[in-house]
Design a protein that fits this description.
The protein is α/β, with parallel strands linked by helices. It folds into two domains: about 110 residues, Enolase-like, N-terminal domain (Enolase-like, domain 1, 2-Layer Sandwich); about 220 residues, TIM Barrel. It has twelve helices and 15 strands. It has an eight-stranded parallel sheet. Strands 1-2-3 form a three-stranded antiparallel sheet, sandwiched between helices. β7, α8 and β8 form a beta-alpha-beta unit. The chain is globular. The model has no long low-confidence stretch (mean pLDDT about 95).
Length: about 350
């Protein structure tokens, strides 16, 4: 098995701002996994919030490539187990290798990843489109430029309710809001009442991920469901969130790929929690991977490719929020630089 990687700078259509960061360019690495004449692709992004640097990612990927040079890939789950137990790399690079393993497996055996993991007959949720923090007139302009039935609005300012009121005047689309840890418990409870009246579906991660006491208060008193993001990074966090959040948002890069995400979904269902999957600002490689889980989800935030201007790959596309899967095996991806 051969693992290689390429670096790309993804250019955003406009400055993307949240409560704790902003950027115009997203550095990403696309990993290629080759064996038996087939190539699978996965992706990992640099992430300043979590301290994931390009140098650290490259070091981990080099280590994995060297130690896996003699490995014979059969099933993606087996490779993930082998790496997790034998190679000291972080969850971000592990995610890219895991995504590539599913893509490779599907291409080798002529099945989509959705077919491989099952549940292909389940309803598939639409993806939202994210509106980052900006002056209200800019947020309105972004919505006008991308008419969509479902928006995720980034909040965490001193004027959050006023922002949603202004945006609501522009559209009847469903809103969900992401405060990115920018509120207190009392603010969240008060905001939830007003946001519900403004057609907001749920609130994502309103409090600091360490404020469990505050989240218990929010969980008991919020009129809107609250979904964990920064508080639910890896498998062990699912149980921690039960009784504090109504659902979880799974990011493949944070948890280590499709393999652990599947287990997180199963555990959340057992605990009676809603399940959402999200994304980073990624190319079609990463977005096509996370959308393979869509039939298992209640909510989806997979708009990464819609926010960039120079996607280096092809894969799933979207039509007014609806996922359009290409008629290709694996995750359905190919690099724009050459054949899959």
């Amino acid at each position: 098995m051969e693992i290689t990687y390429q670096e790309f700078d993804l250019k955003l259509k406009s400055t993307f701002k949240t409560a704790h960061s902003q950027r115009d360019v997203q550095k990403t690495i696309i990993v290629s996994l080759r064996q038996d004449g087939h190539t699978g692709y996965g992706e990992v992004t640099v992430n300043t919030y979590f301290g994931i640097t390009y140098a650290a990612l490259v070091a981990d990927l080099k280590r994995a490539a060297e130690e896996l040079a003699g490995y014979r890939l059969s099933a993606p789950e087996d490779l993930h187990h082998h790496i997790a137990n034998n190679i000291a790399i972080g969850s971000f690079p592990l995610c890219a290798i895991d995504e590539a393993a599913y893509d490779w497996y599907g291409k080798k055996h002529g099945v989509t990843t959705r077919e491989y993991i099952g549940h292909t007959n389940q309803p598939v949720p639409m993806t939202d489109y994210t509106i980052g923090i900006a002056p209200v007139e800019e947020m309105v302009a972004k919505m006008a430029a991308m008419p969509w039935p479902l928006y995720k609005i980034k909040l965490g300012t001193k004027n959050d309710i006023e922002i949603i009121r202004a945006l609501r005047q522009q559209t009847e689309a469903v809103f969900r809001v992401d405060a990115n840890c920018g509120w207190t418990a009392d603010e969240t409870i008060a905001n939830a009442t007003e946001l519900q009246q403004l057609g907001v579906e749920f609130i994502e991660q309103p409090l600091d991920p360490d404020d469990w006491q505050g989240m218990k208060k929010v969980y008991k008193n919020s009129v809107l469901p609250v979904i964990a993001d920064e508080a639910c990074l890896v498998e062990g966090d699912v149980d921690k969130c039960a009784g504090y959040f109504h659902g979880i948002n799974i990011k493949l890069t944070k948890c280590g790929g499709i393999t652990p995400a599947r287990r997180m979904i199963d555990r959340a269902r057992t605990l009676g929690m809603q399940v959402m999957a999200g994304c980073m600002t990624e190319s079609s490689v990463g977005i096509s991977a996370v959308t393979q889980l869509a039939p298992l989800l209640d909510h989806l935030d997979a708009d990464g490719t819609l926010l960039i201007t120079n996607d280096p790959a092809t894969g799933v596309t979207f039509d007014n929020g609806r996922i359009i899967y290409p008629a290709k095996p694996g995750n359905g991806v190919a690099l724009g630089l050459g054949p899959a």
